[in-house]
Amino acid sequence: MSGKPKLYYFNGRGKMEPIRWLLAAAGVEFEEEFLETREQYEKLLQGGSLLFQQVPMVEIDGMRMVQTRAILSYIAAKYNLYGKDLKERALIDMYVGGTDDLMGFILMFPFLSAEDKEKQRAFIVQKATSRYFPAYEKVLKDRDFLVGNSFSWADVHLLEAILMVEEKKSDVLSGFPQLQAFKARISSIPTIKKFLEPGSQRKPVPDDKYVETVRRVLRMYYDVKAN
Amino acid sequence: MSGKPKLHYFNGRGRMEPIRWLLAAAGVEFEESFVEKKDDLTKLQKDGSLLFQQVPMVEIDGMKMVQSRAIANYIATKYNLYGKDLKERALIDMYVEGMFDLNEQLMSYNFQPADKKEQHFANVVDKATNRYFPVFEKVLKDHGQDFLVGNQLSRADVHLLDTILMAEEFKPDILAKFPLLQSFKARISNIPTIKKYLQPGSQRKPPIRPEEVPKVIAIFY
């Protein structure tokens, strides 16, 4: 056993990607086991590794953690990316809640029909530019990092969200100078810069192969609708 | 200003109810301001009170907090309902996120189109009795203690009681195969602050009535 956290998920972004980002940002090496077949999934189920029969699952510090938010909160606290006190933690939780909602609109995007994808793309951009980006733009007017003048989980999560929305509309940051500067600044933090380079464990935009694998392994998500 | 937390939401359970439960369990008095029509929400949005233009919003300790998980996390920590260390917190978070997943399914029943309701009901009962309740029954069985985590009351116990009661409203005998959850329910319901919250006249909200659904949709969508 290597002592490194071990991630169990599909070979793709999904709900595991924010966890990869956070571990990478913290400079923590991790291993991955990719679910490719139904048999692998059933083996995990039968072995009792999945508390609620679901992935993501992360083996870390002797625990088999499930539930994305639980895993993220644990990693953030362990690696000092959760603020210095309860009030900073509250701000981080609020900001991460927003970016989580925004990335949630993108999560099921690959599973939509071509027609629904166009609808959803418009929806994502509208929400990003009218609800979420303005909120973070305002916060960043007076500071380099979202909370407490130091790098936290909130910054990692926001960068991830920005990049994901840009994949849907490349000039989406055009009305948001603070976010543009934030993006450049956080991207050049050494651990993050490394994660953004080719060859890292960052996963690419989900493709049809990813969708097919998830459907085959979970036997779900055949009929997903746009928001 | 009273110094009490002030909750802004519609007059119903929704995403605010876990927060009401936590405050009540902690013995913290709170005030409520109800969003009854679209204008009420618009007013809050216009005066800059809502970080992401949404409720729940709770005024607490000089902050206008939004995002129900952020609010619940803050209250749980402040009132010592979040375990004693990082590992207990991890367990609590895992259990509570599972409960919230089940709650979402319970609550969304009333928002399903008529032709999907029966299937949805069957799915919810299946998930409750085959995925979620067996986990919590086993947790209690394995350690033999009165509370889910760390041998003391935590938010995990409070949220589980809420979930159990909502599931029973859905299907009254849903705990039939879960003797330890039945005794858990009785035990936690007897804690004085919780017992008080379960009595008529408390700030606990009733389940949404089908005729209220269009009004809620009109306010929020």
Describe this structure in words.
The complex is a heterodimer of chains A (227) and B (221). Chain A is of the alpha+beta class and 227 residues long. Chain A contains nine helices and four strands; from the N terminus they run E-H-E-H-E-E-H-H-H-H-H-H-H. In chain A, strand 1, helix 1 and strand 2 (31-34) form a beta-alpha-beta unit. The model of chain A has no long low-confidence stretch (mean pLDDT 97). Chain B has 221 residues and is of the alpha+beta class. Chain B folds into two domains: 6-79 and 198-220, Glutaredoxin (3-Layer(aba) Sandwich), CATH 3.40.30; 86-190, Glutathione S-transferase Yfyf (Class Pi), Chain A, domain 2, CATH 1.20.1050. Chain B is built from nine helices and four strands, in the order E-H-E-H-E-E-H-H-H-H-H-H-H. Chain B has a four-stranded mixed beta sheet with strand order 2-1-3-4, with helices on one face. Chain A: InterPro entries: Glutathione-S-Trfase_C-like, Glutathione-S-Trfase_C_sf, Glutathione_S-Trfase, Glutathione_S-Trfase_N, GST_alpha, GST_C, GST_superfamily, Thioredoxin-like_sf.
